[in-house]
UniProtKB/TrEMBL annotation:
One of its GO terms (molecular function) is transferase activity. InterPro entries: NatA_aux_su (IPR021183), TPR-like_helical_dom_sf (IPR011990), TPR_rpt (IPR019734). Residues 600-623 have a biased composition (Basic and acidic residues). This is N-terminal acetyltransferase A, auxiliary subunit. Residues 596-638 are annotated as: Disordered. PROSITE patterns: TPR.
Amino acid sequence: MPTSQPLAHKDASLFKQVLKAYETKQYKKGLKTCEQILKKNPNHGETMAMKGLIINALGRTEEAFAIAKDAVKQDMRSHVVWHVYGLLYRSEKMYDKAIGAYKMALRFEPESAQILRDLALLQIQMRDYHGYIETRKTIMQQRPQLRQNWTALAIGHHLVGDYANAEKVLSKFEDTIQGNVHKWDFEHWETCLYKNRIIGESGDTERALEHLNSIAKNTLDKTALYETRAEYLLKLGRMEEAQKAYQLLLDRNPERRAYYAGLEKAMGIDPSNRKAAKPIYDEYAEKYERCDAARRIPLDFLEGDDFKAAADSYLRAKLNKGVPSTFANIKALYADPAKREIIFSLVNSYNEEQEKEEPAETNGDGPKASQFRIWTLYFLAQHYDHYRTRDMTKALEYLEKAIKLAPKTLELYMTEARVYKHAGDLQTAMEKMDTARKLDKSDRYINTKTAKYQLRNDRNDDAIATMGLFTRNDVNPNPLTDLIEMQCIWYLTESAESHFRQKQLGLTLKRYATLLKIFDDWAEDQFDFHSFSLRKGQIRAYVDMLKWEDSLRSHPFYTRAALGAIEAYIYLFDHPTTSGEPELDKLSEADRKKYLKKQKRDETKAKEAAAAKAAKEKEERNKNASASDDTVKKEDTDPLGVELAKTKTPLEEAKKWLDPLVKMSGDTNARVQLIAIEVERRRQKWLLALKALKKAKEIDPQAEGIWEATVRLRKDVSALPTDAPSLSTDSRTLFEEELLPLLAPTADLAALTTDYENTHSGSPAHLREAARVRKVLGLEGFEDALMKSVKVEKAGWKDGVEAVRVAREVGVEERKVKEVAGGRWGRVAAFK
């Protein structure tokens, strides 16, 4: 087995300089020193390994791995070589291989603290808790004087569910420092609270309460202390003490709803008769004059005259103060028709009273209008803009009156924009929101709202210009670059959806690729906290972070982005193209040349902006003489996503989004399973598609799309030849056995589709689905079903837009659909 020779004294000193250069990111200097060593010692494995590591930092990954492999061949018994090999794998997120390399390094240097720490980081990152426990035991035995080594071991036991050993580890360390703890030792008392959480989660609530009381005097996080104590007392049924505990919490923060809920439970109030809780809220409303929760919560459970009296008091107080969020605070009550009517009658009566007192509206020249008058009109406008009581004409009428009284109140213009948005007039909505923005150009919120409305209206250039008013243009000339660095998820999502509506596939996929990288970065960012949190003693927050990371891809923003990205890749699969833009193939030769010329110009501009940014960053680095950072950042060679749109494997790209989405949200979201069917059906993975179909039907049997997916799946499989490689004989038999209970034989599909259409005659989405199914089956009546979807009473303008899209898909004349839809929603540009 080859083994490199030890270095001479002078070369060994140079090797130390290599290590230092790497740690301080002076890569070019380190590489030069490596070459100097290898000139005399060409087969020195450790120097070769360090050269590979430095080359990887300079962006030459393939070359780095080739050098590292040679280094392993030269010195297979060097822990440095294997450690470096592990670092290379880790940099490429090949964590399993990195762990294997670290374990090999430990075979030759089992006491290396650095390798053990790096291995532990990867094991917790990969959630290999059992391996993490073993590694942490070794680290703790090496340096038992450090608290963080004991705490890390306890965390491992805790996360694997071994509460007894987790508590035991923490208790052993406490025994070693008995009497040597200062009352301001944050790390110690934080660890005590963590230990208490472990005892509580083990189910021994009585002992957890005793332990909590024993550390109460010196615990620095008093809020956590009081909340945990109240929770324990409630679990133990010690209601009188629990009442006092929740009363103490309410005295500290009377706005926290959870404290009121706990107090109600402690007082034994029946959830079905919460009216008995009214005295609690009266007490705190009287005690704390400015407390909103004590006045708002009773509106959830009061009825009739009691509700009317409480709502009257609440609304008058808010409108008198001119609180813009009054309607937002109470709109949840609109789910109850009786309460909705009472609220409207109260506010309407206020308006009528004001009209009698101020018969002539002023326009800024006469007496100043009262706050109560202005915000009453504002409330009524929002009432008529609410989806349960929508009346655009009346909403705009009230807003117009309010604007006359207070022409510089931006909330009025924002709501006016929202009214137009709900009416489908996105152009006017965007203009109104921009008017509101100009009233307060220093307000970042209204700035971002304007950009959002511009994106909804597919005015992407205007949106990025608007966002550029608040980005760091001195650092990044292109505002989009700054938004990406700030991980502005909402903007990238809205931008992707806008580009997809315009069928600009390249930019659509570019935005979604950026979003995917951001979620990957959030997962990757854990590495820093595995050691930082232990060092700083933030144990409970660290454990909470790990649990949050485990559910990261169930976040609503990931779900929305994933569904959008998958739809884009499906569209790309269904509309193959050589240009990277499916819509481009439909253009005339002249229009195509014009479009490509503009695209080339935009791409050149984007590359120039990237080059300018890189030059500026290099200039800034050069100014800093105290530190030399030779890190090479990868240049974006595809700023417009042209290469992304030319992918030959769109379904495999879609799977990158789909797999974590199904894992995290597939059990609760039928739409996730339905889009999984679309991907697997196109991949000809019939059994996976069937599995997704069954799961979707289990989640929501009436979900729009299930019937269409069932019919399409049946039709696709029936059309397969008996010797089709994508479906073996056994699989076909299983498929038939599983699918038939969901679907009658093919001969009955026409009748079943008619029944389906009649059953869901009041749902626009289901009627559109029926139209698509009729087209798939070659049945007549798909045009009638589509037209019905636009005429349904509960249909909105977005249903009309979808109907136009489906008309294009099934071959119905768009003009007919637009005429009907335009008659109902005349402000929508898509129908003109």
